[in-house]
Design goal:
Structural class: alpha+beta
Number of domains: 3
Strand content: 15-25%
Strand order of the largest sheet: 11-12-13-14-15
Radius of gyration: 29 Å
CATH architecture of the largest domain: Beta Barrel
CATH superfamily of the largest domain: Butyryl-CoA Dehydrogenase, subunit A, domain 2
Number of helices: 12
CATH topology of the largest domain: Butyryl-CoA Dehydrogenase, subunit A, domain 2
Shape: elongated
Helix content: 40-55%
CATH class of the largest domain: Mainly Beta
Number of strands: 17
Length: about 550
């Protein structure tokens, strides 16, 4: 179905934007969520790459592209694990800037729209009020004309980018007695005297600065009126089709990502001796919600296609927002995740022993998979070794007839796109990579899981088995190495190889190499008894 709307150029843009987000945004998300502040530099980087100007005129630095580039922009933003960051970006690009482009005169476009596209200025749309909510006609903020100025008094709330913004697009009543026919739209620079912005303490969306704005006798020039006086309500209604579709797309993209993430989690989480994706009730629930999301997505795409042709789609956009936001966000995010969490919490207490046994069996099988056949118990002879970056890793020696024939090294890295990746890597006595197994990861569903097979496939430069890391670390081709990264998952590939390199550095540090025979022996200073390892590691494998 997607092929009806997305060309090869759209998909190339999607990959380019995804790579950009992984490189420039993802490493900072955790900090921005904790501090509640998105650093200014990222706005400029978005502008430099042209991401704020996708559907804006070339005369002001835009690219004048079709709306499906905007769809790609919105969908990929929902995959960076910060809805707050995503909200800040699309509120700037498709709420505030939409009015600048449609109602702003040439001066406003040159002084505010062009810098907004370049990422040099940040905008916010101020419509919603504390007493009227989203009831536009019921707003109380006024803009009274006095000589060559308008004086604005009132307040706005739930304003995304309210603190970051360099300017506001403000809706206010110039003729209160006329109701919705007395509303006008203004450009207000945030440096203007009489403006105060208070950041709201939210439960979620921590990175975005949702704020309440107060206007106390704020004076602006008559030239800051955008469009015609008294036409503010029709202007707002005119843009609601695009704005509602934006919210609908955000919702289906976020819900889809949540479902993919949940499915991936269910394939790894065990209860009663099996992964929970085998439980029929959970499978049925996932199918129901995945179907709901897919229906919404197809409807949203169809509405965007019509809007892109210039058709009037207010009804369809309203339907899209209604259907995509509440059901998908509540059902797909809250119910699925909370339901799965409740089930797991309920069984956790009386499944600890089976889970521990299952984990131990899984570890044993993993060691067998990555080492030559052995007749000892590697877990009983495990010892710690220090990697090149100073972390302690567990090493499981594989022996046959009392002779060391290889080792399995339990390694990890924090450099994955979504956090930690755990692997177990096997080496023979010559230090060559014998095999590997991915124990745990939280990478993008469908991409990260490819690690299990990609690097043992004899195709191009994918296969790392049999390689000697004594000659140097394994590195992806993009970084000057000779290992082909997983398609569309370069960050995950870098992280996987980092974990492998760490494993080898720990193993190599415990070996005494015989240059003539190639034989090795384990350094006695790193050996510990199985009892000591157990005491130190505790539940490390759970």
């Amino acid at each position: 179905m997607n092929s009806l709307y997305f060309t090869e150029e759209h998909e190339l843009f999607r990959q380019s934007f995804r790579d950009f987000l992984h490189k420039e945004v993802v490493p900072h998300i955790e900090k921005w969520e904790k501090t509640g502040t998105i650093e200014r530099f990222i706005w400029k980087k978005f502008g430099d790459m042209g991401f704020f100007g996708l559907n804006y005129p070339e005369a002001y630095g835009g690219m004048n592209l079709d709306l499906f580039y905007t769809v790609v922009f919105l969908e990929e933003l929902q995959k960076v694990k910060s809805s707050g960051f995503a909200a800040a970006m699309w509120a700037h690009a498709y709420l505030a800037m939409t009015h600048l482009n449609a109602e702003g005169d040439e001066r406003i476009k040159q002084e505010y729209l062009a810098p907004s596209i370049a990422g040099e200025k940040i905008g916010a749309l101020c419509v919603t009020e504390p007493f009227g909510g989203s009831d536009v006609a019921g707003m109380r903020t006024t803009a009274v004309r006095k000589g060559d100025k308008f004086v604005i008094n009132g307040s706005k709330t739930f304003i995304t980018n309210g603190v970051y913004a360099d300017y506001y697009v403000v809706a206010a009543k110039t003729n209160p007695e006329l109701g919705n026919k007395g509303i006008s739209i203004f450009l207000v620079d945030t440096a203007t005297k009489g403006i105060s912005a208070t950041k709201l303490d939210k439960l979620g969306w921590r990175a975005s600065d949702t704020a309440e704005i107060a206007f106390d006798n704020v004076e602006i020039l008559l030239e800051n009126l955008m469009g015609e006086e008294g036409k503010g309500f029709p202007y707002i209604m005119q843009h609601f089709a695009l704005e509602r579709l934006i919210m609908a797309i955000n919702a289906h993209a976020r819900a889809e990502y949540a479902i993919e993430y949940t499915i991936e989690y269910m394939s790894q989480r065990e209860a009663f001796g099996s992964t929970i994706n085998k439980f029929q009730a959970l499978r049925h629930t996932m199918v129901e919600h995945a179907t709901e999301v897919e229906h919404c997505k197809i409807f949203n795409y169809a509405a965007v296609a019509r809007l892109n042709k210039g058709e009037y789609v207010v009804k369809e956009a309203t339907m899209a927002k209604l259907k995509s936001t509440l059901p998908n966000m509540l059902l797909s995010l809250t119910i699925i995740c909370a339901g799965a969490g409740a089930i797991l919490a309920g069984v956790n207490d009386f499944t600890k022993a089976p889970i521990a046994a299952s984990k131990a069996a899984a570890l044993e099988n993993a060691i067998k998979e990555v080492t030559p056949p052995f007749d000892n118990n590697p877990t009983q002879e495990a010892y710690k070794a220090v990697s090149a970056d100073g972390d302690s890793l567990l090493i499981y020696p594989a022996k046959k007839g009392g002779e060391l024939i290889g080792v399995a090294v339990e390694s990890n890295t924090q450099k994955g796109f979504s956090g930690e990746i755990k692997v177990i890597v096997g080496f023979d006595v010559e230090g060559k990579l014998f095999n590997y197994s991915v124990l745990q990861h939280a990478e993008t569903p469908g991409l990260g899981s490819k690690m299990q097979e990609w690097f043992r496939t004899d195709k191009n430069k994918q296969n790392v088995l049999g390689r000697s890391l004594a000659d140097g670390n394994l590195t992806v081709s993009k970084d000057g190495g000779d290992v082909d990264a997983i398609t569309a998952a370069t960050i995950s590939s870098r992280a996987f190889l980092d974990a492998v390199n760490r494993a080898y550095s720990a193993y190599a540090g415990t070996q005494k190499w015989d240059g003539e025979s190639g034989a090795t022996s384990v350094g006695t200073d790193t050996e510990t008894t199985s009892q000591t390892v157990t005491e130190k590691e505790g539940d490390n494998h759970e």
